[in-house]
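Revision sheet: structure tokens.
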Amino acid sequence: VVHPKLSQFEALPRSHDKREFDVISNRYHSDHETREKQALDEMRKEIQVRYWQTHNFDPIVAEYYDREKEAEFQRQREALRAVHGTSALARLPPSIKHSEGAAYNIVTQTTKDEAKLKTAEGAENRAINSKKGSAVEQKIKERAEKLEKAMEDRSFLRLARAGNMRARTEGRLHGYHLITNTDCHGRLGQPLPPSRLPAQENVWSKLHSETDAGLRMGTSVAPRKTKKARDLTGAVSTELRAQSADPGVTSARPSESLAATAMTRTTVSARPPTVPTLRMPSNITQLQNNYDFPSVDAAKATAPASETGVRTGGGF
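Predicted:
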């Protein structure tokens, strides 16, 4: 209750500040019964929560009250049961840890642990296995020699297909004629006959050749063959049919012939340009002789005029 004279002030004096609960009478100043019942309900709920946080196990049936927690506990027990005793076995000496009794059952001959059985067998047969070192080294050496021989044969086979290499192996670059045994150099030297070996192609010429050499070299794109563009107007086909029917009779109207000719030229000009193919000199043997022979007089006597300008020099 506030005195009327105190209502004119904004705040009441400190003597009017009172708590909601009176500690002397142990009662609320207002609405004591309702507020006391609400406080007891809140206390009961808090006590229940605290109790079930620590008392979640039924000691009579030895199970958790929560079914999910009981299922998780059983799953963990199964996982621990599978590795039970492994920590104790790991601390044992190696002679006991990897013994025959720990690897398999001596009575029933059933394997307990495959890893331990392999370790035990390896330790038992260590002396026998140590004698196989020389045999293994011999097998490795034979395999390496066979692989090296195969790689060497492949390299020689690749060189054997080249024209200049075949010329060297067949004795054309020895400096003398094999049949007449005459020298190929000097003023009276006899020139060698032209070689029939195919000219050696380089990578660029093989890739741009019209054959499937590009595929043989390992490229995955086949050489593209240029085809003539189709004439969709019908003028050229009409002219060709008229000429095949009567070659001596031409078109009745000159304008149609001129139009067909113009269309043909347009079609031909519309074709994409072909990639030029690099060609090696026809007489590859004479060109090689210019590089290997100390004298080039014999090569100049037989080589064409277009090939005599190649760099010349002494033998290698």
